[in-house]
Specification:
Elements: H1 3-18, E1 29-35, E2 42-45, H2 46-51, E3 55-61, E4 64-74, H3 75-82, E5 88-93, E6 98-102, H4 103-108, E7 112-117, E8 120-121, E9 131-133, H5 145-150, E10 155-160
Parallel strand pairs: 1-10
Antiparallel strand pairs: 1-2, 3-4, 4-7, 5-6, 5-10, 7-8, 7-9
Length: 161
Amino acid sequence: MSLVVRLATLFALALALAAPVRAASPQDILLTVEGRIDGGQKSLTRADLEALGLESVTTTTPWYDGAMTFEGVSLARLFEALKIKGDMVEVVALNNYFVEIPTADLIERKAILAMKRNGAYMAVSDKGPLFIVYPFDADPSLRSEVHYSRSVWQVKSMAFR
C-alpha cells in the first residue's frame, strides 16, 4: 500500500473516530416517560428499550386472527430500570387515547411493551411501534374489557402518578 493511500486511510479513520456521537433525534424517540420516576423525564429509543432485554409472549388477541408471538421489554423490568415510584401509570397513544393502569397490574400480570409481532417490528399502521400486550392465553381472567382497554397500541408516553 502506498504512503498516500495509508495516510488517506488513517485520515478517514481519524475523522470517523473524532465525529461526535449522534444524539437521539426526536424521530428516534419511541417512548417518553415522566412523573414519579428516578431522574425526571426520560426519552427512550428502540435501542434503549432493547438494551433492557426482550421477552416473548405468544397469545391470541381480539385484534389478530390466531396466536401471535409478541416480543418486547417486560413492563416490570422497564419500571425497575426507571425506578418508578408511582402506583398508577397514564399511558397515552399516538392518537391521544389514554388509560390509567395500576402499575401492579402490569407487573403481576406479566405484560410486555411489545415492539415486534411474529419477528417483525410493528409499524404505526399495525399497532406499533409499541403495544402493551398481556399474556391473554396464560390467564383467562385477562380476557376482559378491562384488560383489552389497557392493551394500548401506538404507545407514545407514560406518566407515573
